[in-house]
Amino acid sequence: MKKYLIAGAVALAFGGVAHAADSAPRAENAYLSQADAAARSARVSNVDYTLEFALTGKETFSGTTTLSFDLNDASQALTIDLDNATISRLTVNGKTIAPQYNQWFITLAAADLKAGRNTVTIAYSRPHSTNGEGLHRMVDPVDGRVYTYSHFEPAAAHQMFPVFDQPDLKGTYQVTVTTPADWVVSSTMRESGVQDVDGGKQWTFPRSKKLSPYNFSMHAGPYKVWEDNSGKYPMRLFARQSVATQVSPQDWFKYTKQGLTFFDQYFGIPYQFEKYDQLLVPDFLYGAMENAAAITFAEGRFLHKEEMTVAQKQSLAGVIMHEMAHQWFGDLVTMKWWNGLWLNESFASFMGTLATAEATEFSNAWQSFYSGGKQAAYTQDQRVTTHAIETPVPSTANAFDNIDAITYSKGASTLKQLRHLLGEEVFRKGVHNYLVKYQYQNATLDDFIGSLGEAANRDLSGWTKEWLYQAGVNTIAADYKCSAGKISAFTLRQSAPGKELPTLREQRVQVGLFQLGAQGLALSKNVAITYQGATTVVPELKGAACPDLVYPNYQDWGFVQVQLDKKSFATAQSSLSKVDDPLLRSMLWQSLWDGVRSAKLPLNAFLNTALANAPAEKDYTLLGDIVDKLQASVGYLNLMGPSAYNTKVIAQLEQMSFDAAKAATDTNFQRRWFSTYISVASSPAALNQLAAILDGKLLVPGLNVGQDVRWNIIRRLNRYAYPGSDALLAAEQERDKSDSGQQAAIAATVVRPDAKVKAEWAATIADLKTTLPFSKVRTAMGSMFPPEQRALNEQTAAQRLATLGEVDKAAGPVYMRAYAASQIPATCTPASVARLDAAIAKLPGLSTGTQRALLIAKQEDERCVAIKQAMMK
């Protein structure tokens, strides 16, 4: 991996562009600045690509690209992006040219260009990628078959072919691919011909519609293919041959067909890309990618060696819907530059959840969104690294700096809130008009908001400024008085985080009043209200029965932290089991957890509440949220170090989860509880039980100890150096030689509390030229230092911080996103906090992403120390 230099920052305001001077050459580095991209798109238009690829399955591939484009200004040089290739031939307008090429882009001299139509042909060869970008190659360890797939977001198409690699230079793509005889190929279009050639096959695809480069794709290999033509559009599903038995095509096709029907109707524009392919691919960097008509999904997230649980099916449905929403919003209409990536992702997250709730069996999708993505957004928005939803992106080096829970889930929450504010049908009409007006083009945030405002007959500039250009989450609290059992005055009070983030926002919410009675905690009254500013009087609630609990964001319309009044908080803590509404119950659990995270509610008080209430939880989605909080609690306890209390409460959690797994009559609940048991097991008794379950000496009625469960147990046993766990690991490696088995074996090896093992894997992680696929390096990173291994973490902590700047300069964004998230030491002591503070002062030149990771590590370390201190009071 070559050393990348970060392009210089460009001064931007509200997505505007600082244009480079005409004479300024493009910076000699791996990235494209927004200024250079804008200058290029001002000159270039009507782009067509003719792409020829020769794939053999070996470590390199070759291709010939012909670019045809209109140029309105031929007085200056023009660059074409191409990464790490060997160019064998370059012709410009029929003339053979010696390439001027720096391994990042080709520069075409002005003398070789002309105003009007230009044609450039580039023949080249290039190594396949192994880090998940470009044209990735993977050798299946089970059968030796080779698989390839492309991934181009953000700005990685030039790692596969010569291209103007920026979203606002859309083009058409005509593709020809030669492959081994047993391979199949999927691209944006359905193939128009397949011929036998020289012991292989040649696949020909017709010219596509206009797409941004990052939305085009081409995937090839000996994939297993399933087809379903029962819907309006032909559907196919692809997966590696060795994992085909783990695929449930009927579920994929069911959710896909439901989604296509829903979106056709909602958007009022039929799906534009003729067929719908979906591919499960290995070593994938993210969850999925919305390539037009050829969507890729991460095997590690969507392949299961047992029948899918309800949660796994809902996750699959939700991601299918998210990527499908992109086919309209992102592929059909595309942002002009990467600062608009948040809107693509926010909209897809919002629409994906809406479609899941309204078109599938998972009608509680918004509850899952609340407890998952939305809570991550609240956490992110309260960090020192919080940022506005809409932020400048000076160059492609920064394209993913702000891709986080604010981008996805806060953005989706603001769109949900805006839909409530404007009305459902007005919102839908605005989206429809936007898609109609800008289809096959690029658009800006102002274009989108303008379309919504026009549909609502309202100026949304103030809303946009408050919500999209200002960071931070507000807090809302109910301030009320009662007299003679009735509310005599009721006011909503809104507050901002502080002087640095002072914005108060307009928002529409529901205020719910609840009474405790024989039937539990029941809703007595709710009103919808639009509030703004510091105080909003709610006269509609005057005279209502004095409540036992007030929840001022009932049914979760708003993006706002709820501060329960003292009486409501006490009711929440004591009466969780008396709340019938699962979403309200989720919100009350979250209020308690917020109290822990802010060090206002002692962690032990939360755990006592959980031990008393969790076993009785009957809502499967909420149970998942509760056990996630329990696992986070155990993480805090382990970071704090051993104590009599920690030993006692973890033993109680072990017993609770194991008893619940044995008692469960529903398979989904049993698997969730048993997974929780594995995740908290650390006592000798619990580890003995896990070992006995693994070898069949102990049976849990109804529980299937399949391959995934076996690996989870083996990893846990190795994490605590259980006697003989290394031998169990070796035996399981022989039993399961699949790619997922190799990943699990790495995780189980690296997690062992063994300094020698840590050192060996640290060396592999540090070797930027390792031949180990990055997916496996990333697995090792994430397994290196579990919370209880504080002493091992401390042994190399100072060294890792001292070399962080060097690694950051050498490695590049893809690597650093994983490295910075896992290798910065934070061990829940004042000394650890001080060490991180010193590192922040010593390392001012870090890339944006790594700098943020360092700041987050310090803030979370401070939080852990505060939680520990709150427990001791």
From TrEMBL:
- EC number(s)? 3.4.11.2
> Top enzyme class of this protein?
hydrolase
What does UniProt give as the signal peptide span?
1-20
Domain (Peptidase M1 membrane alanine aminopeptidase): give its ranges.
255-467
Q: Specify the ERAP1-like C-terminal domain's residue ranges.
A: 549-854
Pfam families under this entry? ERAP1_C, Peptidase_M1, Peptidase_M1_N
Q: Name one GO molecular function term.
A: alanyl aminopeptidase activity
What does the record give as the reaction this protein catalyses?
Release of an N-terminal amino acid, Xaa-|-Yaa- from a peptide, amide or arylamide. Xaa is preferably Ala, but may be most amino acids including Pro (slow action). When a terminal hydrophobic residue is followed by a prolyl residue, the two may be released as an intact Xaa-Pro dipeptide
Name the cofactor(s) required for activity, per the record: Zn(2+)
Where the record annotates domain Aminopeptidase N-like N-terminal, the positions are: 49-214
Which InterPro entries does the record match to this protein?
Aminopeptidase_N-like_N, Aminopeptidase_N-like_N_sf, ERAP1-like_C_dom, Pept_M1_aminopeptidase, Peptidase_M1, Peptidase_M1_aminopeptidases, Peptidase_M1_dom, Peptidase_M4/M1_CTD_sf
Q: Which UniProt keywords apply?
A: Aminopeptidase, Hydrolase, Metal-binding, Metalloprotease, Protease, Signal, Zinc
Family to which the UniProt record says this protein belongs: Belongs to the peptidase M1 family.
**PANTHER family given in the database record:** PROTEASE M1 ZINC METALLOPROTEASE, PUROMYCIN-SENSITIVE AMINOPEPTIDASE-RELATED
Annotated protein name in UniProt = Aminopeptidase N
- The species is Duganella lactea
Q: Which gene encodes it?
A: pepN
